[in-house]
Amino acid sequence: MSTASGNFESRAALALKDASLQKALGNFKPLFVAKRASAVAELADFEALRDRAAQIKNAVLGELDVWLERYAAAVGAAGGKVHFATDAAEAREIILGICRDANAKTICKGKSMVSEEIALNPALEAAGYKVVETDLGEYIIQLAQEPPSHIIAPAIHKTREQVADLFEAHHPGRPREESVAGLVNEARHVLREKFFRADVGITGGNFLIAETGSSVIVTNEGNGDLSQTLARVHIVTSGIERVLPTLDDLSVFLRILARSATGQDTECYTTISTGPRRTGDPDGPQEYHVVLVDNGRSKMLGGKFRDMLRCIRCGACMNHCPVYSAIGGHAYGWVYPGPMGAILTPLFNGMAEHYDLPNACTLNGRCQSVCPVKIPLTELIRTLRSEQVKAGLMPARQRTLLAAWGWVARQPGLYHALERFGIRLLRARAGHAGHISALPGAHAWTQSRDLPAPSGETFLEQWRKQRGGS
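-> structure tokens emitted (470 positions)
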């Protein structure tokens, strides 16, 4: 299910020319990278924690059915109910049924990427429910009627001025705010009354604990707590892969999640919810439901892309991706952008429909190097490309050019002769400028950046020189 019109190439081209988007990306681009580096450097055993987290997830995925059964049993013992949804349509119907049974009118939502994945909001609104996003970023894009462009900072593509314009248009009778603090405070006042009116609160589930039947959310605003404690009914939406065995295992992931996502030692709020309100509890919902969504995950579990199910949705891969940093999230066409989206979107929604996503990757490896659970992202993207070729999806012109290159590459003498000729040609084209601004056949590159002139020697010639001629 696409959330944007056109293909990836056209959306990327528009993003590169969007001055407001480029300004917004420029504001945030260095922030996450620098803060993560600082937070990681201060934790001596960060690499050991990455290894341990990957081991825990691999062990769970190896017996996922067992852990899901244990989790569902623990939720039931705590007074809640688990619903298993095969796909997005079934998940929507389950949630709509819970809301109908609760005679709900207003629904408050905490941040949930799974609810975005299953297109929950349009279904709820079509059924007549008033849906209010309470995460600040999600609230902003709800007002703008746009999808999220980042999984942890949904409105990262908006400038402060654009947010001020949105609030002024949707909050009549309030003075226009210009500062970040003022805008945050305005949203807090507007949303406060929504929490008390909500009949149903819907949140995501960063982690699900089989030991206790608990769901865990991590936030920086506290909106998730209000969404799930003040409403009569709490619904957790989560993928089936988010289960962990014990609370001890949770502690490993809490130490790497915030550092990888926002460069914090920990988020401001880590909330563990177990079932509905018990006798003597001062607050909490009367009903507690967990909707576990498969939607293609079981197929991944038994295939080549199983490692992707380790993902904890921290966003580190896209924060460090040069492609995402240049075009933002909407160009990817669905709710999961960046390197993770380059894999998940074709797997969930079709390799043919999203052929460009894995092929837009430069395979520079930064995403893989920072992934807190050591997902081999570049290897998975390369594998996905291979699967596209096997499925006959590669365009005929590209197949012809690659076949020609492959033939030349198997003729070492011809290959090196053409390489030396190409270097001389490119250096002549560059002249004294040292770079090439336009090159026949390379318009896709030179329309948005210059091509550096080669040094004058082939790689093999430089290698031999450094090795003393050997």
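The two ends are 56 Å apart (CA to CA).
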